[in-house]
TrEMBL record:
The keyword Transmembrane applies. The chain crosses the membrane at residues 9-28, 48-68, 89-110, 140-161, 182-211, 231-252. This is DUF1206 domain-containing protein. The keyword Transmembrane helix applies. It holds the Pfam family DUF1206.
Length: 259
């Protein structure tokens, strides 16, 4: 489980690094048509030599993260409160999330080079919202999910600012310089992720209120929306740099995380 977790953190770092770099290119209109989301990151890998091998490795590593989170849900996480019910529930939710990510990466790898190479987060978001709105009380369902995403974004941001991630790291094994670097990466990366997820939730809430699935946005459309603010492309640059920082924090977690 220790090795599975560390492989998973490294895989998460690769995905966020590529998403952040694509977002930077989007900010300066140099994205070359790539999506600034998971599908875009996977397409970036697929274009490289041994891309298929790298995709399968990434998918298996992400599945390792899901398996580790599942073990935490079943047997409890490390730390004095790791066996509490709410902690195990959070681990179960994370296991489901990373299981979905692993499935999407492995599906992309399996269909690499074919028409089934994967859908963008924008298309998936609109399709999910449209189907949900067709259900009885669908507007309330989408609204509830949207509020949940907004709350999750705020929770990620606040935890990052308060440096809650420190308790999960082997800080005693870090030098002073490494500890300061990890703090900067963790805070800036967490704030960027929190703002990004919170904004995705806001767009979903607007879709529910207006009963219009086209108002929902995935990661790519949300990142591009930052360029339409009064700050121009610079807000997206700041978010993109934060996502790259979170990639660095993920790589640090692969080395120093308590498992």
């Amino acid at each position: 489980m220790d090795r599975a977790a560390r492989a998973g953190f490294a895989a998460r770092g690769v995905l966020y690094l590529l998403i952040g770099l694509i977002a930077l290119r989007v900010a300066f209109n140099e994205d070359g048509g790539k999506q600034a989301d998971r599908s875009g990151a996977l397409a970036e890998i697929a274009d490289k030599p041994l891309g298929s091998v790298l995709l399968w490795t990434l998918g298996i590593a992400t599945a390792g993260m899901a398996l580790w989170r599942l073990s935490e849900a079943a047997f409890g996480a490390s730390g004095p409160d790791g066996h509490k019910a709410h902690k195990r529930l959070f681990s179960a939710c994370r296991a489901v999330f990373y299981g979905f990510v692993a499935y999407s990466v492995l599906a992309f790898a399996a269909h690499h080079g074919s028409a089934g190479g994967g859908n963008s987060s924008d298309r998936q978001s609109k399709d999910f919202t449209a189907k949900a709105l067709e259900m009885p009380a669908g507007r309330w369902l989408v609204g509830a999910v949207a509020i949940g995403v907004i709350v999750a974004g705020g929770w990620i941001l606040v935890r990052a600012v308060r440096r809650k991630f420190r308790k999960h790291l082997k800080t005693a094994e870090m030098s002073h310089r490494v500890r300061r670097t990890v703090d900067v990466l963790g805070v800036s990366g967490g704030v960027a992720r929190g703002v990004l997820f919170g904004t995705i939730g806001v767009f979903a809430l607007v879709a529910a209120v207006r009963f219009d699935p086209d108002k929902a946005k995935g990661m790519d459309d949300t990142l591009r929306a930052f360029t339409q603010t009064s700050a121009g492309p610079w807000l997206l640059v700041a978010i993109a740099v934060g996502l790259v920082a979170f990639a660095g924090f993920s790589f640090a977690s692969a080395r120093y995380r308590k498992t």
